[in-house]
Design goal:
This protein is an alpha+beta fold. It has six helices and ten strands, in the order αβαβββαααββββββα. The protein has helices at residues 5-14, 62-70, 105-109, 112-115, 119-128, 205-217; strands at residues 19-21, 74-79, 83-91, 94-100, 132-134, 149-150, 165-170, 176-180, 188-191, 200-201.
Length: 228
């Protein structure tokens, strides 16, 4: 299935800061992007426009995987400083996008700054996407590795008696899903910017991630009328 001219125009107008490509054969030679993205385009999920690696996270992100199938219209390759896979969807008739970064791959697997992540989350970053967030601010999804933030740096006063935490998912409104860094035991938190001393402790990171994304994306339109 091909993108309609009207959809192309709307996508390009919305992604003004990117060079946008609608199929792999449009991409200039020498423009490097992951091989697993090569099937990007306007089509059903099982046609390959969405990386097959998403299936490895269906159990921990069930709502998000359902959204990919029911609401995503397709994917486009969007270049800025580096390539992103942009997932196109509609929210009450307005075109919106989630941006997936280049998976970190073997280099990321061996990066000491990535190795401390829980195994499943590390697999997300190394095999699927380095971040997957709303195109305005790259929030409401797993943060890009470059956007990981030390919770200590967000505290105006002395850091409370808590483990050293790193925010790995931003709500866009100041709250973070966070992980304790070694040598502390692996623990996940919701860090609330209005109550920095009393984060919600021992959360299921994936369960809350799936829930927060479902709340943000709950008004997404079905793709049935477009993908026929």
């Amino acid at each position: 299935m091909n993108w309609s001219n009207s959809l192309k125009e709307r996508i390009v107008n919305e992604l003004k800061d990117y060079e946008v490509y609608f199929s792999a054969d449009e991409v200039p030679s020498g423009a490097d992007f992951p091989e697993q993205w090569r099937g990007f385009g306007c089509s059903k999920v099982d046609s390959g426009n969405i990386p097959a690696e998403w299936k490895n996270f269906a159990e921990v992100l069930p709502w998000v995987n359902s959204w990919l199938a029911k609401c995503v219209i397709g994917t486009v390759l969007a270049f800025s400083d580096k390539p992103y896979l942009a997932y196109v969807y509609s929210d009450n008739g307005d075109l919106c996008f989630y941006m997936g970064g280049i998976p970190l791959g073997v280099e990321g697997e061996n990066n000491v700054q990535v190795q401390w992540l829980p195994q499943k989350l590390k697999a997300f970053y190394t095999t699927l996407h380095d971040g997957f967030g709303f195109y305005i601010g790259y929030t409401m999804g797993p943060s890009r590795f470059e956007d990981f933030v030390s919770i200590k740096d967000l505290c105006d006063e002395d850091y409370p008696a808590l483990p050293d935490m790193v925010g790995v998912f931003s709500s866009g409104a100041g709250d973070y899903l966070s992980l304790a860094k070694p040598p502390a035991e692996v623990e996940a938190f919701i860090w609330w910017h209005e109550e920095p001393d009393v984060p919600t402790r021992n959360i299921d990171l994936w369960d809350v991630m799936d829930s927060w994304m479902s709340i943000f994306l709950e008004n997404s339109d079905s793709n049935d009328s477009i993908l026929v």
